[in-house]
Amino acid sequence: MTGFPELPRGLFGQSEGIGASFGKLAALPRSQSEPPLGAPLPLSPFQGVSCFLVLQDLYILLETDAGFAIVDQHALHERVVYEKLLAAYRAGNVAVQRLLVPAVVELPPADKDLLLEHVDALRATGLLIADFGGVAVQLEGYPAPLRRPDPEALIGGLVRELREVGDVGEPEALHERLHSRACRSAVMAGDKLADAEIEELLKAAAKLEHPHNCPHGRPTVVSFTTGQLERWFKRRV
User: Taking the chain (237 residues) in consecutive chunks of 10 residues, what is each chunk's mean pLDDT?
Assistant: First the structure.
């Protein structure tokens, strides 16, 4: 019995610095637009999607103008939300989803004090947190691009990030780390997405500045061409 064909090196080697030449590649006949085996793939694998298939409520198989792509829905949604939040923060207009009933979260006194020291910085990122009295704080609102987060998980995560960052005031580095933590409320593995939700996710992904990695560095997508698929199945030498 023969084993699976060896995957070509460079297949997973996407870089955020690749030039945006996908539009021209997609316009060429497929036989001309396919890169050599192991060559860098076009910048965005999310353009020209003709159909998709969901696998295990985690991966999304796409057919595109450039070939095929397999997407991690959680990692991709993290990247989409992260870039939306960061762009809104830089523009100074983060939309906030206010809770009808604020969520009360109890914290150790030291954690509560640390969190309240950074209320203004958190507000600038779309997180509205206030003193509830005693050992508790209340979450009054969160960035609108997020799915409704679990209040205790969100607050606990913010405290951990603030401990790591330290007393640094309000530089953008702090906000990026806070956004990175907040993005963990993105769609998860096992979440069932409707077709319309997947279509919206892919449309947003096609506009991303850096589409190939989530904010934590994990890949969002692996792409391969029709030519590569044919080589793996020995249909092309």
Answer: 38 32 30 42 66 85 87 91 84 89 96 92 88 96 84 88 66 64 70 84 88 88 89 86
Q: Other CB atoms closer than 10 Å to residue 23's CB: what's the count?
A: 13
Q: Comparing C-alpha atoms, which of 14, 29, 24, 40 is closest to residue 214?
A: 14
Pick the CATH number of 95-185 from 1.25.40.10, 3.40.190.10, 3.40.930.10, 3.30.1370.100: 3.30.1370.100
**Amino acid present at 152:** E
What is residue 170's predicted lDDT score, i.e. its pLDDT?
53
DSSP helix/strand/coil, 199: helix
Would you say how long the chain is, in residues? 237
Give the span between the Cα atoms of 188 and 18, in whole angstroms: 28
CB neighbour list of residue 164: distance below 8 Å, 6 or more residues apart? 177
SS3 of 162, please?
helix
